[in-house]
Write a structure and sequence with these properties.
By secondary structure, this protein is α/β, with parallel strands linked by helices. Helices cover 29% and strands 19% of the residues. Strand 1 and strand 2 form a beta hairpin.
Length: 490
């Protein structure tokens, strides 16, 4: 018989419903005082006002009224414990990952030593004013010549690149430059207008070295027919890219982003811990994983800090957390304005509840480095990356930092995909079945089998994707970018 409830940690004073439960039923030694929806929590003991609610072995909330055993524990009777900046201490936790057998993947080796898992051609506008031209160049080339000999041509439009000041202007330029240099792109056409803030000359100057047989630049105001000029530049790129071939390499060459969106009460029970086991696997194999969504570390940050490789990484993690809290306050917002309505409907009660589930994607290995806006992921192992929790911004940041693909867990479901393969992992079998056109993997299966079996299945899927198998977002042409904006627009 399938399990109906789960106590995640022996210290917990709540259990989670794995299916809809009815008032009067007995589960985990208590009689339910009311119906409990799948993913939601019920009390295992009587809680007084002021008592801590414990889940994942840690406090996730404080009771603001008495709660009797068997009662629903949620936003109506508890509140967050989070507040402003905290004093953190480094209590190092040493974790030794077990030895694993690395897998092989077939990838494209680039001249600068990077590898790519796709050999695509990207058209990237420096400014939103030329989005229409970029789309026309894309459509005209495809209709005239097709896409034989490479993995597809894609236009990545955005609304920025002009009338931006300070950090916003620099962040737009940096994200686009990182895209130009991403190894999943065999070639890139960068398209500007000519009068925008994000000037092409400066863009090229600060971009650094690129292979100019693969990366071309065009300013529309300087062309009589920018569409035809763009098509001809892509033709030149294709003549180089079509000769690229996959070669065998070790899975340690991969950089994998870790992301969740549309989380529910099962996210921290099925999909996120499964992805955490994958993170431990690929790190033990010599590879790299990257965890972002800084606001969804609030409440679990000390656990990450204790896994820092050394004092330097600990201090960088403290800065990562406090800088984002400062950003919230500068805009007059509380640091705990989370979870979302969909999260709450799925059973997540407070930001601590969400964060303790979200950070399980990082596994148990040491945090090797922290990467801020202007950096690339360089350190092997688990990295933390600056950025918001917003799905589109976070996936864009992860991909721009160098990730080849993203493992994206979801309990509510989303069709979104970034500019690298975005593997959707459902927390529950119902979502996987209902939205099979969105979902690549059913992590709800761990409730019927076990984590070891599903980890092997997930590793298989990552190898298939690295070798060229398309994810649902690629099949559905769900490819978007979103650039994080914090300042003033003129």
């Amino acid at each position: 018989m399938a399990k109906k409830t789960i106590i995640i940690n022996e210290l917990d004073n709540v259990a989670v419903a794995l299916t809809d439960l009815k008032k009067g039923e007995q589960h985990e030694g208590v009689v339910l005082k009311e119906d409990i929806t799948k993913g939601h929590k019920f009390a295992l003991v009587d809680l007084k006002e002021g008592d801590m609610v414990i889940k994942y072995g840690n406090p996730i909330a404080c009771a603001h009224k008495p709660i009797s055993a068997g009662s629903h524990v949620h936003t109506h009777n508890v509140h967050t414990n989070l507040s402003e900046n905290l004093e953190y201490t480094y209590n190092k936790v040493d974790t030794e990952l077990k030895e694993v057998k690395p897998r092989k993947v077939n990838v494209y080796h680039r001249a600068n030593g990077d590898v790519g898992i796709r050999n695509e051609i990207w058209i990237i506008p420096t400014v939103g004013c030329v989005n229409g031209q970029v789309k026309l160049i894309h459509e005209t080339y495809k209709n005239r010549y097709g896409e034989e000999g490479f993995d597809g041509i894609f236009a990545y439009t955005h609304p920025y690149g002009c009338s931006q000041l300070g950090d916003d202007h620099e962040r737009t330029k940096l994200i686009l430059q990182k895209m130009v240099r991403h190894p999943n792109a065999g070639g890139v056409l960068v398209v500007g207008l000519g009068c925008e803030n994000n000037q092409m000359d400066e863009f090229r100057k600060s971009l650094g070295w690129v292979d100019e047989t693969r990366v071309k630049f065009m300013v529309c105001q300087e062309e009589d027919d920018e569409i035809e000029a763009g098509v001809q530049l892509i033709k030149q790129i294709v003549e180089v890219v079509r000769h690229d071939k996959r070669e065998e390499d070790d899975i340690s060459c991969l950089k994998v982003g870790l992301k969740c969106g549309g989380s529910d009460g099962l996210s921290g029970i099925t999909a996120n811990p499964l992805v955490g086991r994958f993170s431990d696997y690929i790190v033990a194999a010599g590879g790299t994983t990257v965890l972002s969504e800084v606001p969804e570390m609030f409440g679990a940050e000390q656990l990450l800090m204790n896994r820092a490789r050394d004092e330097e990484v600990f201090e960088k993690t403290v800065k990562l957390i406090n800088d984002f809290k400062d950003y919230f306050r500068r805009n007059g917002q509380t640091v705990y304005e989370n979870p979302s309505p969909g999260n709450k409907a799925g059973g997540i009660t407070t930001l601590e509840d969400k964060s303790l589930g979200c950070t399980q994607k990082s596994g148990s290995g040491p945090v090797e480095d922290v990467v801020f806006d202007d950096g690339f992921v360089m350190a092997k192992g688990l990295n933390l990356l600056n950025g918001p929790g917003n799905d589109m911004c976070a996936v864009t940041n992860l991909a721009a930092s160098g990730c080849h693909l993203i493992l994206f867990t979801t309990g509510r479901g989303t069709p979104f995909g970034g500019f690298v393969p975005t593997v959707k992992i459902a927390t529950n079998a119902e979502l996987a079945a209902k939205k099979s056109n969105w979902i690549d993997f059913n992590a709800g299966a761990v409730l019927e089998s076990n984590f070891d079996v599903q980890l092997e299945n997930l590793i298989d899927l990552v190898v298939y994707v690295a070798n060229g198998s398309k994810t649902r977002n690629e099949i559905n042409s769900s490819r978007e970018i979103a650039i994080f904006k914090t300042g003033v627009t003129l």
